[in-house]
């Protein structure tokens, strides 16, 4: 009885805090119109006026895609250290922790989607631009190893500027480390779904983001290896308008389907259902 | 006396880029007998930035792959300055899979400023090509040794380095980003490249101290290199493919944590 009351109280507090948020507005970067925060939240973080996709925090993504209260986080206390003694790295880590409200740039765990159990990792663009250092690589590798042992599918939600420079070769080699774990997971007949979100680039694009059995993307997500400015500078020419954007990358043959935010949970749930017995018959 | 004594880390980066250095072709013709070059990825084309084929290392047949920069300006243009397109990485993988089929080991010479940055490379899947190499090399059933002979430029170099052993020439570098780009991104000042070079820990000595590479090779000691390679393959080939793959997995698994 007491426990039940506790939950009711917690829920009330949550509702009150959400009421407070309702009065706030933000300006859409794309159409410059003012929109209330509650409208954006209720509309899957898509601008109701122009359809612009707002960035979403890693944890919010998981809540949006998984069944209520099903998510259990793993390795949540792993934190980066300045292993190379790289200038200004600690300050950047601290600033990212405040900005993202997370300890590192990826959240990993197990959850269900429409009742289907799976492992899930979600990267956070607010944490040093979603860059991959040793801890991001370690957490994702551990998740794949766990999924391999338990024969669970993995859903990866990617957003990243690439490998984290401040960790030098250690961060580059995370590409190899994670790719090995992805391959081993797949070798045992397990499913890996990638949801590419804006932007997925660099060393993450050139490793686990491009190794899914099924590769989905959000509309207009930028997906590519080299940054557009780097290419523009090195080629000294302007780039095609839809260059590296999801619909063009799909045309080039590297994405299975572009799925809007409001359909993602249902779409991924259907994929999981069809793989329920790993296609066994 | 070591040739890298008194050189700063950034000096080493500059010397790794020198046009006077041995390129992959020089190493291949010096170390491999009866080398036959094979072409094409069987999907799109033949990328001249990556060369590969078969031959003998002393008595042992093997597959050899190298990122080639070329020396004269004509050669450099022909080989796209050692910056590979996706078809280059796919050619390399095709040759590695062939090596696996015929149970011969693989040797890679790595020397690139990075994978090619361009609209065509992106649209043919540069990221996917590198990713697939990393994944497929992780459980290739034959031994792989990679030697960074000059520049180890980020993902474009890593795509040929998911190996049982990574060796480096003493005056080569291997880095997540070029020191110039790093300085430009972090401090908006490409002139701080020397500071970045030192902070990135990209020299053979530093990477060896961190346990990220397995051996530092002395320059101009080709005979030594030849016998070291033969000996290393002998050891690696004494393992079963299962043991080999497990050890390779562990090699990368332990990095960073």
TrEMBL record, chain A:
> Alphabetically, which GO biological process terms does the record hold?
fatty acid biosynthetic process; malonyl-CoA biosynthetic process
Question: What UniProt keywords are attached to this protein's entry?
Answer: ATP-binding, Cytoplasm, Fatty acid biosynthesis, Fatty acid metabolism, Lipid biosynthesis, Lipid metabolism, Metal-binding, Nucleotide-binding, Transferase, Zinc, Zinc-finger
Positions of the zinc fingers (C4-type)?
Answer: 28-50
What reactions does this protein catalyze?
A: N(6)-carboxybiotinyl-L-lysyl-[protein] + acetyl-CoA = N(6)-biotinyl-L-lysyl-[protein] + malonyl-CoA
EC number of the protein: 2.1.3.15
Q: What are the GO cellular component annotations?
A: acetyl-CoA carboxylase complex
Q: State any single GO MF term.
A: zinc ion binding
Q: Which interval of the chain is the signal sequence?
A: none
UniProt pathway: Lipid metabolism; malonyl-CoA biosynthesis; malonyl-CoA from acetyl-CoA: step 1/1
Q: Where is the CoA carboxyltransferase N-terminal domain?
A: 24-281
**At which positions is Zn(2+) bound?**
28, 31, 47, 50
InterPro entries recorded: AcCoA_carboxyl_beta, Acetyl_CoA_COase_Trfase_b_su, ClpP/crotonase-like_dom_sf, COA_CT_N
Cofactor or coenzyme needed: Zn(2+)
Q: Where does this protein reside within or beyond the cell?
A: Cytoplasm
- List, alphabetically, the SUPFAM superfamilies matched: ClpP/crotonase (SSF52096)
How cofactor binds (record note)? Answer: Binds 1 zinc ion per subunit.
Q: What is the role of the protein in this entry?
A: Component of the acetyl coenzyme A carboxylase (ACC) complex. Biotin carboxylase (BC) catalyzes the carboxylation of biotin on its carrier protein (BCCP) and then the CO(2) group is transferred by the transcarboxylase to acetyl-CoA to form malonyl-CoA.
Q: Which family does it belong to?
A: Belongs to the AccD/PCCB family.
Oligomeric and partner information: Acetyl-CoA carboxylase is a heterohexamer composed of biotin carboxyl carrier protein (AccB), biotin carboxylase (AccC) and two subunits each of ACCase subunit alpha (AccA) and ACCase subunit beta (AccD).
The protein's name: Acetyl-coenzyme A carboxylase carboxyl transferase subunit beta
Q: Which organism is it from?
A: Acetitomaculum ruminis DSM 5522
Automatic annotation (TrEMBL), chain B:
**EC nos:** 2.1.3.15
The record lists the catalysed reaction(s) as: N(6)-carboxybiotinyl-L-lysyl-[protein] + acetyl-CoA = N(6)-biotinyl-L-lysyl-[protein] + malonyl-CoA
Which intervals hold domain CoA carboxyltransferase C-terminal?
1-251
List each coiled-coil range: none
Q: In which pathway does it act?
A: Lipid metabolism; malonyl-CoA biosynthesis; malonyl-CoA from acetyl-CoA: step 1/1
InterPro entries of this UniProt entry? Acetyl_CoA_COase_a_su, ClpP/crotonase-like_dom_sf, COA_CT_C
Write out the entry's keywords from A to Z. ATP-binding, Fatty acid biosynthesis, Fatty acid metabolism, Lipid biosynthesis, Lipid metabolism, Nucleotide-binding, Transferase
Q: Which GO terms describe its cellular component?
A: acetyl-CoA carboxylase complex
Keyword Repressor attributed: no
GO BP terms: fatty acid biosynthetic process; malonyl-CoA biosynthetic process
Q: Name one GO molecular function term.
A: carboxyl- or carbamoyltransferase activity
User: Tell me, what's a Pfam family for it?
Assistant: ACCA
Give yes or no: UniProt keyword Cytoplasm: no
What PANTHER family does the record point to?
ACETYL-COENZYME A CARBOXYLASE CARBOXYL TRANSFERASE SUBUNIT ALPHA, ACETYL-COENZYME A CARBOXYLASE CARBOXYL TRANSFERASE SUBUNIT ALPHA, CHLOROPLASTIC
Supply the NCBIfam families for this chain.
Answer: accA, AccA_sub
Record's protein name = acetyl-CoA carboxytransferase
């Amino acid at each position: 009885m007491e426990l039940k009351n506790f939950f009711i109280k917690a829920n009330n507090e949550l509702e009150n805090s959400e009421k407070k948020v309702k009065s706030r507005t933000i300006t859409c970067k794309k159409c410059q119109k003012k929109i209330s925060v509650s409208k954006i939240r209720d509309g899957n973080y898509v601008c109701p006026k122009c359809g612009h996709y707002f960035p979403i925090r890693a944890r919010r993504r998981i809540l949006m895609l998984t069944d209520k209260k099903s998510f259990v986080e793993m390795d949540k206390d792993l934190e980066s250290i300045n292993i190379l003694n790289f200038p200004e790295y600690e300050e950047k880590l601290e600033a990212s922790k405040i900005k993202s409200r997370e300890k590192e740039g990826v959240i990993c765990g197990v959850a269900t989607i429409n009742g289907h159990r799976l492992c899930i990792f979600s990267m956070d663009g607010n944490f040093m631009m979603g860059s991959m250092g040793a801890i991001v690589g370690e957490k994702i590798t551990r998740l794949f190893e766990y999924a391999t042992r338990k024969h669970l599918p993995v859903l990866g939600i990617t957003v990243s500027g690439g490998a984290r420079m401040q960790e030098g070769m250690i961060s580059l080699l995370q590409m190899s480390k994670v790719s090995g774990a992805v391959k081993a997971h797949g070798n045992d007949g397990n499913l890996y779904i990638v949801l590419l979100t804006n932007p997925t680039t660099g060393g993450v694009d050139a490793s686990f983001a491009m190794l899914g059995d099924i590769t989905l993307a959000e509309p207009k997500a930028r997906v590519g290896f080299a940054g557009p400015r780097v290419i523009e500078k090195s080629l000294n020419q302007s780039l095609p308008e839809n260059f590296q954007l999801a619909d063009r990358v799909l045309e080039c043959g590297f994405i299975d389907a572009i799925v809007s935010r409001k359909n993602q949970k249902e779409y991924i749930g259907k994929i999981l259902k069809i793989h329920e017995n790993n296609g066994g018959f | 006396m070591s040739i890298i004594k008194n050189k700063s880390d950034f000096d080493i980066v500059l010397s790794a880029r020198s046009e006077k250095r041995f390129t992959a072709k020089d190493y291949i013709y010096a170390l491999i007998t009866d080398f036959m070059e094979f072409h094409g990825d069987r999907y799109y084309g033949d990328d001249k930035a990556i060369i590969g084929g078969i031959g003998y290392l002393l008595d042992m047949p093997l597959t050899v792959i190298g990122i080639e920069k070329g020396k004269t300006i004509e050669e450099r243009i022909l080989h796209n300055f050692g910056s590979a397109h996706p078809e280059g990485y796919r050619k390399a993988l095709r040759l590695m899979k062939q090596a696996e089929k015929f149970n011969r080991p693989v040797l890679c010479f790595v020397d690139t400023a990075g994978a090619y940055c361009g609209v065509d490379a992106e649209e043919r899947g540069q990221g996917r090509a590198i990713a697939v190499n990393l994944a497929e090399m992780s459980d290739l059933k034959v031994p792989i040794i990679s030697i960074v002979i000059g520049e180890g430029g980020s993902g474009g170099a890593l795509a040929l380095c998911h190996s049982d052993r990574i060796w480096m020439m003493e005056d080569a570098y291997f880095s997540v980003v070029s020191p110039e780009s790093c300085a430009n991104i972090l401090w908006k000042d490409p002139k701080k490249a020397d500071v970045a070079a030192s902070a990135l820990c990209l020299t053979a000595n530093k990477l060896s101290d961190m346990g990220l590479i397995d051996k530092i090779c002395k320059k101009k000691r080709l005979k030594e290199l030849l016998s070291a390679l033969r000996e290393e393959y002998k050891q690696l080939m004494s393992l079963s493919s299962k043991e080999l793959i497990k050890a390779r997995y562990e090699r990368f698994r332990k990095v960073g944590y």
